[in-house]
C-alpha cells in the first residue's frame, strides 16, 4: 500500500459530520494515510464544515489558518455543508487547496491525490469540485469509531421539509437512507470497535427507510434484536421531528431494555403563528401531546428541546407564548438558537425583522429557563443509584464523567479507578459545576 503521508481531520457541527469524518478517515487509512492530530505537522488537513450559523464560516477560516501555521506545506481540503453552499467563498480563503461538495467528499482519496499532484506540478489555485445539490441522490453509510464509549451511526441524510430558516436541504440534498440490513452492517462495525453506546443520527431521522418502505421503529427493533450487536448496551435516538415521533416509537423506547429514555425534539417556537411562518409541520398541541405521552410512559425521561428566538414576526407577545410554553413543558434542557439570516431561505423575504439586540436578549432569557430545567431534572435523581457509561477523559480532579440513561451528566469521583467504556452503578449526589456528583456503588 502506497504511503500518502499524514492526515488530520477537523470537524465542525453535528453528530452526522462526526460520523462522516470518522468513516472518511478510515477510507484514507485504507488508502495509505496515517491519521494524526493537527499539532503533528500533517501533510493533509481535511476540514469538515457546518453552515447552520454564520459563526460556522468564521470557524472554518480559523482552522485553515491553524493548519497552515502547523505546517505551511500542508494541503488543505474543505468539505461539508459550508463547502456545498459557498464553494467560491472558501476557495478564496488563503491556504485552501481544495473544496469538495456533498457528493464529491465521498471520493476524498482520489480527489486528494489529483489535487496534490496538480499543486506539485505548480498550480496555485484552489480546486473546486462541487456538483448541484439536486443531483445528490446516493446515501453513503457512515459510523464513527475509535471512541470506546459512544458511536454515532448515520442512518439518514438530507431533508424534504424546507423549513423557512434552514439551509440544510440546500447543503445535504433530499431525504435518503439505506435499508435496515445495510444499516446493521454499519452498526456491527461500531460494536466490533468496542462501542457500548450507539447514537442514531441523521438530518431528519424520522424519515429513515421512506424509499425502502421501512421505518425507524423497524430499524430500532432490528438493532435491539441483532445478536451480533449484543455487546452494545445502549442506543439513543438523537434529534427527531415531533411529527415523526409517534406513539408506537415512544412505547417501543419505554419497553426497550437498550433504547435509553432520552429524546431530543426540535420545537423551534411555542407560538403557532410563528410555527406556521417557519413552515414547521406541527403545532403546539401535537408537541404537547408527544411530551405528555413520553412522561406518561417514562416519568423521568430526559427531554431536550431546540428553540429559535428572533424569527421574523416573533413579536413580544409571541415570544412570551414561547417562553410560557417552554416553562410548561417537562423538558430537562433547551438548545437555544438565535435566528440568523441564511442565504436562499424563504425567511429572508419576510417582514417584521426582530432587531439583533432583541434576539440576543431573548436568547439570554431562555438560557436561564434551560438552567432551571437542567437543575430540576438532575435533582430528581439525588440519592438514587443510576447506571453511568464512563467516558475516557479524566478531569483535573481525577473524575471520569458520563451520562445516565435519562441523559444526566455525572462526574464520578472515583471514576478514574474504573475502566472507561463500561456502565457502572453510581450513587448520585449534589449538583456542582453543572454536573451531578456521584460515587460508584461498591459491591
Ligand atoms: S426539518 Fe427543517 S430544520 Fe430540520 S433539517 Fe429539515 S428543513 Fe432543516
Describe this structure in words.
- With about 450 residues, the protein is of the alpha/beta class.
- It folds into four domains: about 5-130, Response regulator (Rossmann fold); about 135-260, Transcription Regulator spoIIAA, CATH 3.30.750.210; about 265-380, Transcription Regulator spoIIAA; about 385-440, OB fold (Dihydrolipoamide Acetyltransferase, E2P) (Beta Barrel), CATH 2.40.50.
- Helix content is about 35%, strand content about 20%.
- The chain contains 13 helices and 18 strands.
- The chain has helices at about 15-30, 55-70, 80-85, 85-90, 110-120, 170, 180-190, 215-225, 245-255, 270-280, 285-295, 315-330, 355-380; strands at about 5-10, 35, 45-50, 75-80, 100, 125-130, 140-145, 150-155, 195-200, 235, 260-270, 300-310, 335-340, 385-395, 400-405, 410, 425-430, 435-440.
- Strands 2-1-3-4-5-6 form a six-stranded parallel sheet, with helices on both faces. The chain has a five-stranded mixed beta barrel with strand order 14-15-16-18-17.
- Helix 9 (about 245-255) runs parallel beside helix 11 (about 285-295).
- The protein starts with a strand and ends with a strand.
- Bound molecules: iron/sulfur cluster.
- Iron/sulfur cluster (SF4) binds near residues 159, 161, 168 and 204.
Amino acid at each position: 500500500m502506497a504511503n500518502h503521508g499524514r492526515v488530520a481531520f477537523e470537524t465542525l457541527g453535528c453528530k452526522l459530520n462526526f460520523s462522516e469524518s470518522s468513516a472518511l478517515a478510515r477510507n484514507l487509512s485504507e488508502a495509505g494515510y496515517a491519521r494524526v492530530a493537527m499539532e503533528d505537522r500533517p501533510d493533509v488537513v481535511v476540514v469538515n464544515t457546518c453552515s447552520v450559523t454564520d459563526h460556522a464560516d468564521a470557524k472554518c477560516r480559523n482552522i485553515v489558518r491553524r493548519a497552515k501555521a502547523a505546517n505551511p506545506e500542508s494541503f488543505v481540503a474543505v468539505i461539508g455543508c459550508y463547502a456545498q453552499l459557498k464553494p467560491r467563498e472558501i476557495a478564496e480563503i488563503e491556504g485552501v487547496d481544495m473544496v469538495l461538495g456533498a457528493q464529491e467528499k465521498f471520493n476524498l482519496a482520489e480527489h486528494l491525490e489529483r489535487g496534490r499532484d496538480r499543486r506539485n506540478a505548480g498550480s496555485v489555485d484552489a480546486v473546486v469540485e462541487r456538483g448541484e445539490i439536486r443531483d445528490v441522490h446516493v446515501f453513503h453509510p457512515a459510523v464513527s469509531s475509535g471512541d470506546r464509549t459512544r458511536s454515532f451511526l448515520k442512518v439518514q441524510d438530507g431533508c424534504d421539509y424546507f423549513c423557512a430558516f434552514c439551509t440544510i436541504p440546500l447543503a445535504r440534498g433530499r431525504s435518503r437512507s439505506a435499508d435496515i440490513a445495510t444499516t446493521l452492517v454499519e452498526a456491527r462495525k461500531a460494536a466490533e470497535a468496542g462501542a457500548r453506546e450507539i447514537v442514531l443520527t441523521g438530518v431528519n431521522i424520522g424519515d429513515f427507510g421512506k424509499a425502502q418502505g421501512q421505518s425507524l421503529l423497524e430499524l430500532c427493533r432490528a438493532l435491539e434484536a441483532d445478536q451480533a450487536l449484543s455487546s452494545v448496551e445502549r442506543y439513543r435516538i438523537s434529534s427527531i421531528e415531533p411529527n415523526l415521533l409517534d406513539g408506537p416509537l415512544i412505547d417501543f423506547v419505554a419497553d426497550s431494555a437498550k433504547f435509553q429514555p432520552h429524546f431530543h425534539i426540535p420545537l423551534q417556537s411555542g407560538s403557532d403563528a410563528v410555527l406556521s411562518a417557519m413552515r414547521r409541520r406541527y403545532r403546539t398541541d401535537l408537541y404537547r401531546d408527544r411530551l405528555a405521552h413520553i412522561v406518561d410512559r417514562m416519568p423521568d425521561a430526559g427531554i431536550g428541546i431546540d428553540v429559535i428566538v428572533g424569527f421574523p414576526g416573533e413579536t413580544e407577545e409571541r415570544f412570551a407564548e414561547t417562553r410560557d410554553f417552554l416553562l410548561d413543558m417537562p423538558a430537562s434542557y433547551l438548545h437555544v438558537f438565535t435566528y440568523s439570516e441564511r442565504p436562499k431561505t424563504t425567511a429572508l423575504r419576510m417582514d417584521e425583522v426582530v432587531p439583533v439586540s432583541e434576539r440576543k436578549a431573548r436568547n439570554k432569557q431562555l438560557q436561564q429557563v434551560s438552567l432551571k430545567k437542567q437543575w430540576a431534572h438532575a435533582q430528581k435523581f439525588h440519592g438514587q443509584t443510576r447506571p453511568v457509561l464512563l467516558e475516557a477523559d479524566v478531569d483535573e480532579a481525577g473524575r471520569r464523567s458520563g451520562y445516565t440513561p435519562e441523559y444526566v451528566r455525572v462526574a464520578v469521583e472515583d471514576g478514574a479507578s474504573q475502566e472507561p467504556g463500561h456502565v457502572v452503578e453510581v450513587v448520585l449526589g449534589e449538583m456542582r459545576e453543572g454536573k451531578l456528583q456521584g460515587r460508584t456503588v461498591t459491591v
